[in-house]
């Protein structure tokens, strides 16, 4: 079945461009469009998309609040949110991730990258591009823990190997890359990631990465 996508952006020209790119793919179907967050909520309820391509700055309701409502406890469907951003709006991306977005993508990303991001998010993975993630987290270094604070008690629930995996997830590595780094199988990595998410009460890899930085386990600018 085709991946059902809802386009949310207050610029009709951008929506048209995204639609043209996505409708050229056999496994993706654009089921609707919305010009602001409130329209997006209505469309999610009516159309039940798999992925919402979400702009951040919009009238009436911004993308952060819309994301929070779409993915929150009272959500109306299985939709996952892929946030669109520009470097000028970086400060909103962290909030969108906290709100429940499954990843983010630059508005000027190549067409192939947009298509791949939608497929990754629809499959239940997180679109966590390492280069963008590091730039964001470096920018917010002053707002994150200094590393001198005590680690949260929740981290003590993890085994030593699970902590290693969490650090690598925070760096934006894929399961295959983590497997190669730790000399284990991808299946083993998936198991470790699943244990980390369950023990820490996190939804996906994006939340795990944010948690790793906010807890002080990983510092911006470090490997």
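Sequence proposed for the structure above (223 residues):
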């Amino acid at each position: 079945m085709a991946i059902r996508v809802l386009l949310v952006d207050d610029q009709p020209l951008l929506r048209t461009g995204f639609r043209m790119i996505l409708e050229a793919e056999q496994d993706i179907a654009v089921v609707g469009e919305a010009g602001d967050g409130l329209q997006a909520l209505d469309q999610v309820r009516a159309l039940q998309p798999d992925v919402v391509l979400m702009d951040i700055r919009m009238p009436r309701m911004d993308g952060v609040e819309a994301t929070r409502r779409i993915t929150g406890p009272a959500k109306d469907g299985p939709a996952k949110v892929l946030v669109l951003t520009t470097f000028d709006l970086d400060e909103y991306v962290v909030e969108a991730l906290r709100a429940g977005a499954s990843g983010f993508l630059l508005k000027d990303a190549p067409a192939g990258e947009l298509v791949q991001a939608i497929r990754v998010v629809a499959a239940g993975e997180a679109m966590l591009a390492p280069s963008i993630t590091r730039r964001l987290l470096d920018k917010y270094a002053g707002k994150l823990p200094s590393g001198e604070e005590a680690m949260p008690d929740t981290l003590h629930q993890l085994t030593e190997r699970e902590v290693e995996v969490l650090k690598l997830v925070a760096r934006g590595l894929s399961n295959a890359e983590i497997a190669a780094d730790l000399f284990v199988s991808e299946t083993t990595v998936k198991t470790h990631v699943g244990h980390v998410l369950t023990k820490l009460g996190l939804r996906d890899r994006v939340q795990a990465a944010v948690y790793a930085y906010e807890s002080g386990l990983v510092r911006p600018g470090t490997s």
